Amino acid sequence: MSGARAGIRDQSALLAKLMIAPAILYVTAMIGFPFILAILYSLSDITTGDPTLRLVGLRNFRDILADSVFRLSLKNTFFFAIVSQVLVILLSRIIATALMKEFRGKWLARFLIMLPWTAPIALGTIGWLWMLDSIFSPFDWVFRWLGLLGTPGALLGPQTNLYWLGVPSLAMASVIIVHIWRILPLATVIQLAGLSSIPKDLLEAAEVDGATPWRRTLEITIPLTLPIVSIAFLFGLVFTFTDVTVVYVLTRGGPVHSTQVLSTWTFFKGIEGGDLAQGAAISLFLFPLLAGVAALMLRMARKSEVV
Amino acid sequence: MANVRKRLGRGGLYTLVGSFAFFGAFPFYWMLIATFKRDHDLFNPVANPFLFNEPPTLDHLRLLLFDTHFPTYLANTFWVGSYVVVITLLAAVPAAYSLARWAGGWGETLGIGIFLTYLVPPTILFIPLSRFTAALGLQESLWSLILIYPTFTIPFCTWLLMGFFKTIPKDIEEQAMIDGHSRLGAMFWVVLPLGISGILTVVVFAFTLSMHEFIYALTFISVSAKKTVSIGVPTELVRGDVFQWGPLMAGALIASIPVAVVYTFFLDRFIAGFTMGAVK
Questions:
Q1: What does the pLDDT look like over A212-264, one tens digit per residue?
Q2: A208-236 b/e with 16+ CB inside 10 Å = b?
Q3: What percentage of chain A exceeds 70 in pLDDT?
Q4: Which of B5, B149, B160, B225 could be joined to B273 by an S-S link, Cβ 3.0–4.6 Å?
Q5: A106-120, A170-184, A207-221, B65-79 — which is least confidently predicted?
Q6: What is the ipTM of this complex?
Q7: pLDDT averaged over chain B?
Q8: B29 closest CA partner among A122, A91, A130, A141
Q9: Which residue segments constitute the domains of chain A, with CATH numbers given?
Q10: Does position B278 have pLDDT exceeding 50, yes or no?
Q11: DSSP states along A61-95
């Protein structure tokens, strides 16, 4: 009896290892190994023209730190990711709270709100590129129609267009808006999952005990949904932090690098410029943040297990 | 009085939901109207841009479908996506099952480890991987994408499936084994059919993740006929500095519709799996 049991157990242990092996092998070969290569490249002088690996120490890091475009793109990366994700968390909580209520046409509203998540990012962004066109932007048309633009003394200026992607501040705002547009659906659904996991009787009991809506929000809803909201925030942060597409399609980092971020700068330097070593060094600056996010997620995973 | 307040609340709710729906959907309306507008109407800065000021036309669609590689992009995207789905399933289903069932302490750590590799972004990987594909002679080949896309589908899908498998009670397999199935047979004949909704979700998401991918395709493919829809539309419909907005918008819209329909059915399930894995 015990022998048969041990047999199955042994077999299971072997099966467990065999079944997980392909995934582990693939991940090691295609993520682990390239990641180590990226570190090696960043310490070398490799280019697409001369792909031999000669180590040159920290020269690349010194060079890129001295480069003002790099410093600007580092700043922009943080700025875009944090601003867009803080707004995403606030807005998604508002939509999710509204969508928790029952009303007619809810499925249609949900479908339309979720749409941005379904389009390939590059193609959704192409749609925005046309909406932010320097001459034919519908936003400019509406502003002109309202008399806010294009007449002498108008609120937004006498010129006929705002040139969304041609002015640094507007270009930065455009990038942030497209990021928000893109991530909002996912964050909303995660918030919905969080809100619907709160036991109804808890809120009712609090209401019976005379707790005001504000207190119920502060002392029940927010603490109980905090873990899931943090997950939404961290995911959104990683998405925006590592995204190349929005900036590449919308502005290519312009005007004059004002919307350049680490991931696009990596692409322009490393692939279009052919300087693989510097490209790798630039991309590695993403790693500390990602490691931070990973550590936070691990801590939360542990915590939720203990509770 | 209470009635008035209620009605005001309703109005506020509709305004709020309506404006968010508008924000989400307006770009798609903008693509739709540009698809069927005559160029003369499309490039008119004075007339109301939200309406057709001249009769609609099929010219842009005709150009997109017959004078560009757009149908080829769709086919390429389909094939890459299908292969990626198969590879992902072959690696992620057994791995997730193994992690969900036999995982002790090491399994839990390994599971989280696999998931965390999802956070290593293409931005860090695409430079070394470009040397990989060169060494393997896969430049300008869709096979390079098929080889590389599982770097983001396998970690993600393993995580999702792990959540699904954990919800299937262990007793069911034990019963199957008492009924004469082997350990592996119990998994194959009993657990997989029960986990079919999880597996379908993974199929949908692996496929759409590869369809949405941009930076690897941009780095590894530059021959027009080999492009996927995600890079083909933004790079090939721009002749010199001239953006062909009509066909561009038509292409963006057509590529978005099928995914939008499928996602509508799968979103809830996906989020269920996602949160199950993340927050126990």
A1: 888 888 888 888 888 778 878 888 888 888 888 999 999 988 788 999 999 99
A2: eeebeeeebeeebbeebbebbbbbbbbbb
A3: 94
A4: B160
A5: A207-221
A6: 0.86
A7: 84
A8: A130
A9: 69-261+282-303 (1.10.3720.10)
A10: no
A11: HHHHHH-HHHHHHHHHHHHHHHHHHHHHHHHHHHH
B242: contact with A, CB 8 A cutoff? no
Task: List, in order, residues 6 or more apart from B196 with CB less than 8 Å away.
Answer: none
Triad A251, A253, A259: Cα angle to 5°: 95
Instruction: State the nearest Cα–Cα gap between B146 and chain A, in angstroms.
Output: 12
What do you get for the CA distance between the two ends of chain B, in Å? Answer: 45
What's the CA gap between B72 and B85, in Å, rounded?
20
- CB-CB under 8 Å, B125 with A304: no
pLDDT of the residue at A107: 83
- The answer to whether the Cβ–Cβ distance between B27 and A181 falls below 8 Å is yes
Determine contact, residues A190/A89, Cβ cutoff 8 Å: no
* Crossing angle (nearest 10°) for helices B245-278 and B196-212: 140
Give the H or E element holding residue B243: strand B242-243
**Is pLDDT above 80 for A5?**
no
Pairing outcome for strands B238-239 and B242-243: antiparallel
- The answer to whether B19 and A98 have CB atoms below 8 angstroms apart is no
- Burial class from Cβ neighbours inside 10 Å (0-12, 13-18, 19+) for residue A259 reads buried
For B214-271, how does the pLDDT look when each residue is reduced to its tens digit (9 = 90+)?
999 998 888 888 999 999 888 888 776 778 888 899 999 998 888 888 777 776 666 6
How far is the C-alpha of B211 from the C-alpha of A120, rounded, in Å?
7
Mean pLDDT over all residues of chain A?
85
Are the beta carbons of A16 and B102 separated by less than 8 Å? yes
Sole residue written with tokens 């062909």: B244
In this predicted structure, what is the pLDDT of residue B272?
63
Give residue A306's pLDDT band: very low, low, confident or very high (50, 70, 90).
very low
Q: Do B256 and A13 touch (CB under 8 A)?
A: no
The first and second tokens of residue B229, run together, are: 């829809």
A91, two tokens: 């807005």
Does any CB of chain A come closer than 8 Å to the CB of residue B91?
A: yes
How many Å apart are CA A165 and CA A103, to the nearest integer? Answer: 39
Contact A22 B112 (CB under 8 A): no
Identify the closest residue of chain A to B266 by CA–CA distance: A118
> Residue B111 has what pLDDT?
76
Instruction: From chain B, pick out residues whose CB is under 8 angstroms from the CB of A13.
Output: 102
Dist CA B248 CA B250 (whole Å): 5
Contact assignment for B271 to A181 by CB distance below 8 Å? no
The tokens describing B107, both together, are: 């399994």
Q: Which among B148, B211, B271 is the nearest to A189, CB-wise?
A: B271
Q: State both tokens at A146.
A: 């309202």
